[in-house]
């Protein structure tokens, strides 16, 4: 799983981990990083990439 996380950009990885593992909301992450609009989209994109990478491992 760690190997799959490192396929994400560092920002996408940080946002994903803060959201999924630590439970921070998109708004809290945006405030912490002064990133106004991209947080939710980055998290969604990272989740989609992770799902695709996991599916590729299974097949």
In short:
By secondary structure, the chain is mainly α.
Structure commentary:
With 59 residues, this protein is an all-alpha fold. 75% of the residues lie in helices and 0% in strands.
How many runs of DSSP E, i.e. beta strands? 0
Oligomer: single chain
H/E element order: HHHH
Helix content: over 70%
Structural class: mainly alpha
β-strand percent reads under 5%
Radius of gyration from the alpha-carbon trace, in angstroms: 12 Å
Biggest sheet architecture? none
Shape: elongated
The parts where pLDDT drops under 50 for at least 5 residues are none
Contiguous helical run count = 4
* Overall average residue pLDDT: 89
Tell me the distance between the termini. Answer: 16 Å
Give the helix/strand layout:
Layout: H1 2-5, H2 10-20, H3 26-33, H4 38-58
Helix pairs in contact: 2-4, 3-4
List keywords for this structure.
single chain; elongated; mainly alpha; 59 residues
